[in-house]
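User: I'm writing a tutorial on reading structure tokens. Could you give me a worked example: one chain, its sequence, then its tokens, then a sentence or two explaining what the tokens reveal?
Assistant: Sure. Here is the example chain.
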Amino acid sequence: MAIVGGAIVPLITGYAADAAGLRLALAVPALCYLLILAFGWYARRPLQHG
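And here are its predicted structure tokens:
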């Protein structure tokens, strides 16, 4: 999945940069990192005590 993300996210970022400027386009990878963070938080395992 990381290979697909590494191939598609830069293309989407480039299209966004052409359409809206680089500053706004950098929100695309930031959004991807936020989604990864949210999934990691959701899928985390509780600590096992004992």
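What the tokens reveal: The helical segments are 2-20, 22-25, 27-43. The chain has a mean pLDDT of 90.
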